[in-house]
Specification:
About 55% of the residues lie in helices and about 10% in strands. It is mostly helical. It has a domain of about 100 residues: Ribosomal protein S7/S5 (Ribosomal Protein S7). The chain has a two-stranded antiparallel sheet with strand order 1-2. The radius of gyration is 18 Å and the shape is globular. It starts with 19 loop residues before the first helix and ends in a 9-residue tail after the last helix.
């Protein structure tokens, strides 16, 4: 017997931009429970973004970058008759945001800049311009789903 589904936690909006999306991003960015450090890194990254991208507000750049990285379809494994098929599925709205944030943070961590805020700045700008590792991850996911479109009739 399965347990109950976990309750959705209500997040408080961040103090500077009053946005729940920012809080979610910072919670994913946080290491070892150091939320203030994560907020400091994120805010300094957004300050750098506003200096480098003059025509847009830094929060708008962040949201557009997140939108550019969000996947619309993904593949899930399903065993049918002894064989495992990669079946394309549309992604739930909540999961889209979650995947985009995780991909953005992971690809920022892998960058070669000196500080985390510099890494995050360059990754946000790259995603805003539809380039960079996180955007490539989205494209690869979509390409995989497109390649396995023939198995979409196995969807449950």
């Amino acid at each position: 017997m399965r347990k109950k589904r976990a309750k959705k936690r209500i997040l408080l909006p961040d103090p500077k931009f009053d946005s729940i999306t920012v809080t979610r991003f910072v919670n994913n960015l946080m290491l070892d429970g150091k939320k203030n450090t994560a907020f400091r890194v994120f805010y300094s990254a957004l300050d750098s973004v506003s200096e480098k991208v003059k025509e847009e507000d830094s929060l708008v750049v962040f949201e557009k970058a997140l939108e550019n990285v969000m996947p619309h379809v993904e593949v899930r494994s399903r065993r049918i008759g002894g064989a495992t098929f990669q079946i394309p599925h549309p992604v739930r709205e909540d999961r889209k945001i979650s995947l985009a944030m995780k991909w953005m943070i992971l690809s920022a961590r892998k960058r070669n800049e000196k500080t985390m805020s510099a890494k995050l700045t360059s990754e946000l700008i790259a995603a805003y311009k539809e380039e960079g590792a996180a955007y490539k991850k989205k494209q690869d996911t979509h390409r995989m789903a497109e390649a396995n479109k023939a198995f979409s009739h196995f969807r449950f």
